[in-house]
What we know:
Layout lengths: L1 E5 L7 H17 L2 E6 L5 H6 L3 E4 L9 H14 L3 E5 L1 H12 L6 E5 L14 E3 L2 H8 L6 E3 L17 H6 L7 E6 L8 H14 L5 E6 L5 H15 L4 E5 L5 H6 L2 E4 L1 H9 L4 E4 L5 E3 L5 H7 L11 H13 L1 H18 L2 H17 L4 H16 L5 H14 L1
Parallel strand pairs: 1-2, 1-4, 2-3, 4-5, 5-6, 6-7, 8-9, 8-11, 9-10, 11-12
Antiparallel strand pairs: 12-13
Amino acid sequence: MKVLVFAHRLELGGTQTNAIELAARIRDTHGHEVVLFAAPGPAVALAEQRGLRLIEAPDATRHPSLKVMRALRAAVKAEGPDLIHVWDWPQCFDAYYVEHLVYGIPLFTTMMGMVVPGFLPRHLPTTFGTKQLAEDAARIRSGTVDLLEPPVDVDFNAPGVVDALPFKEKYGLDDDRVNLVTVSRLTEWLKLESLLRSIEAVDLLAKERPVRLVIVGEGTAAAKVAERAKEVNDRHGADVIVLTGGLVDPRPAYEAADVMLGMGGSALRTLAFAKPIVVLGEKGFSLPFTPETVGYFRQHGYYGLGDGTEPVTLLADQIRPMLDDAQLRSELGAFGREVVVEHYGLDPAARGLERLYQRTVAESPSRTTSVKEGARTAVMLAARGLPEPVKNGLRAVRRKLS
């Protein structure tokens, strides 16, 4: 079949990497024709490396977006795909009302966020990134719900596949300091709190032992991160916090790390590189990946929510044993590599996704269901930002549609 993969703006991020790598693997191992539709960004280079053809989409800040919908209509007319695979809810909105509802193109949706959005059309076949989210979604959605955990190319991301020395020399990391590394988008949403908390934890640890934090990434919160990093570096009179900016290929950063901090797809790539990690989340969440905690991560994903009261000393205490014990770092890294190879490889993920594509094309929803779900979603979208009395009226309409 021919698949149009409708992805996020191609920033440097885990979801974009997942979309690109899976698209290329579906093409290479299953023989389907795949074309990528997305707003351009730095990750275009990654798509080019994988030999994916990109149709550039307009950038948009609100969805559904008329300009994106018009561009998608032109792309679909030119390409004639059998299926559109949309990554996350903004792209779903842009594809639903014309391509799916009017023209009947099968729509397959992947959600890699850490919530189950109740405002999406409930009949669309959808995947979620953790077992817990998939279980939660299955209780409120009428369409098929499947698990698609963030996959990792365990050959491309593996110990020794890249030389970390040029990276370490470029950023002055080849001294006796222990290198903590985080690879992350620098954005307010989802990421900023954990980035600032990581800086504060290293600020504490640097008073006791030679340690630094290397932050690899770019995004809208870069200035806030840089400001906090400068405060810490000025206080210590040394580059305790090092900012590299974004890297199209961040593998040298993973290879250079002694200990990693992160979440989501970055956490899984950490495990592929056989590095120990403290997994971060929001509202103070942090938890080391160990044989004792692997069950939590397999169920809930590589992320979590705290209660907002956890002190930064908790994160520092979780990091400290890994700094002090090279043998522990080696053992945790080897264990993590075993887990990611067994459960998160790119090939099994592509095989599972290809089966879901085939099922989606074979099982088209009724026109009545598509119209009803589209109306329900439109009512919920219309309620955003409206006065409460108007919202109440729209809620009554939504209840009838449900």
